[in-house]
Each structure stands twice: as structure tokens, then as C-alpha cells.
Design goal:
By secondary structure, this protein is an alpha/beta fold. It has nine helices and eight strands. The protein is about 35% helix and about 15% strand.
Length: about 250
């Protein structure tokens, strides 16, 4: 006796994608706007003043901006409204952070101040906190502490920070005697490290000397295509924002 043939299992009908229909690709992740690191050739060259003026100028241009200082030294509790971190937050109008990310006593550099306070700065955590502030809609301005090679920790300085943040650098110098050498040395280091330099700002931080007004021309002749501007020291915040409009244009996406 012959066994009945097994029943065929039915399978759902298959449909094929038309050959000319493009395959849907996942939407790309939004990319944060470039980070700008404001560094000085030295301490006391007016980085905070320039950073605040830039934050206001960018706001006036309709750009959302956050300005922050990673580490601030020489401060004490309770917090004061004239701390660099507080001045930056007031200039940008940001909800937070309202102070420097790390605040240390001692009017010395960050690495020394941390030693004196008995704490260890977690550099990787600091970088992560900074990166989290940059978004596709928000420009992040990071103001350094001291000069380009001033140590943030005993292993990391502002040059390392520029690399860690993939940041563009705005170099700030004082428009006074000696600035040509200081500025060109910093510029040479940045170029050797292949860090993008937006430009150089010469800031009038004190009484003019015989070199003031000539330094910008000299540096421009030697800086090989890097833009150089001179900014007067102005007490009025709105006039200061107007004075750095050209520099703000370097930062805008």
C-alpha cells in the first residue's frame, strides 16, 4: 500500500524590493558644533575679557553659546560674582554651568593648586564634561587658565586639551613689548602639533607702551596667513562685543 504524499507546507508569499527603489539609510547622528579653546601666551593677557565679549557678540548674532572655564584658581567660598566662570556665564546667558567646572584656592596654576588642596583632577572626566556642553545648536567656548603650556594636571596642559576636545584655538596675547616672541612661539607649537588656529587677538590690557600699535603688523608679517586683530580694552560690555565682531565671525559655523 502506498503512503499518501506529505502535504507541502505553505509559506507566505515573498515580495521583492523593486530594483530601482533606493535602500533607506539610517539618518546620520547630529554633529556638535566645533569647540573653540581660548588660550593665552601668558597669564593676565585678557582671556576672560575677550571670551566674555565674544559670548555677547555671538548671542547678538543669534548664535546659542555656552562659555565655560574648566579650572579656576585663586577663588574661595562663598562664590563671588566676579569669578571668571561666573562672568562667562553672565556674558553668554547660559543656564549652566554658572561657575568654573573645578574651583580651587591658591593663586597659582591648576596643577599646583590641586596639589595644595590635596585633590587630584580627573582629566578624562573634565574633558567628558566639557564635550557634553557642545551640541549641534550650541557653540562651546572654553577659556583656559594661564598660558598654552601651563599644566592643568601634571600630565596634561592646554595643548593636550585642544587635542582632547578636537578644538580650534583662539590665541590671545597682550599688546605690549615682548609679545611678538611670545605669540610666535605659541603659534609655532600649535602648528607643530597640527592644532587649528582661528587667529590671534592682541588685547590692550594696560597702559600702552612704545610697541603698542606696532605689534599686530609685525606679527601679521611673520604669522603666515594667520589673521591678527587688535582689540582695545573697553569697560562697556556692549562696546566690547562690538569690538570683537570680526573675531566672532571666525568662530561662527
Amino acid at each position: 500500500m502506498t503512503s499518501p504524499a506529505p502535504k507541502k507546507r505553505s509559506s507566505p508569499a515573498r515580495t521583492s524590493r523593486p530594483a530601482n527603489l533606493p535602500r533607506e539609510e539610517p539618518a546620520p547622528e547630529p554633529v556638535a558644533l566645533p569647540i573653540t579653546l581660548v588660550v593665552g601666551t601668558d597669564t593676565g593677557v585678557g582671556k576672560t575679557w575677550i571670551s566674555c565679549a565674544l559670548a555677547r557678540a555671538l548671542r547678538e548674532a543669534g548664535q546659542q553659546v555656552v562659555a565655560v572655564k574648566p579650572i579656576e584658581t585663586g577663588i574661595s567660598d562663598p562664590p563671588r560674582p566676579d569669578e571668571d566662570g561666573a562672568l562667562l556665564a553672565a556674558a553668554s546667558g547660559q543656564a549652566g554651568p554658572r561657575r568654573a567646572l573645578i574651583r580651587l584656592p591658591g593663586d597659582v596654576g591648576p596643577a599646583i593648586a590641586a596639589d595644595q588642596a590635596g585633590i587630584e583632577v580627573d582629566y578624562e572626566d573634565l574633558v567628558a564634561r566639557l564635550r557634553s556642553l557642545a551640541t549641534p545648536e550650541t557653540l562651546l567656548i572654553v577659556e583656559g587658565t594661564g598660558g598654552l603650556l601651563s599644566p592643568l594636571t601634571w600630565q596634561d596642559n592646554h595643548l593636550d586639551l585642544a587635542h582632547s576636545l578636537d578644538a580650534r584655538v583662539l590665541l590671545v596675547a597682550a599688546d605690549r613689548l615682548g609679545t611678538i616672541s611670545h605669540t610666535l612661539m605659541a603659534l609655532r607649537v600649535l602648528r607643530a602639533e597640527k592644532v587649528s588656529v582661528l587667529g590671534i587677538v592682541l588685547n590692550q590690557v594696560g597702559e600702552a607702551d612704545a610697541s603698542s600699535g606696532t605689534n599686530a603688523t609685525a606679527i601679521q608679517r611673520l604669522a603666515e596667513q594667520t589673521p591678527v586683530v587688535t582689540v582695545p580694552r573697553l569697560d562697556d560690555p556692549m562696546r566690547a562685543a562690538e569690538a570683537v565682531k570680526e573675531v566672532a565671525g571666525w568662530i561662527l559655523p
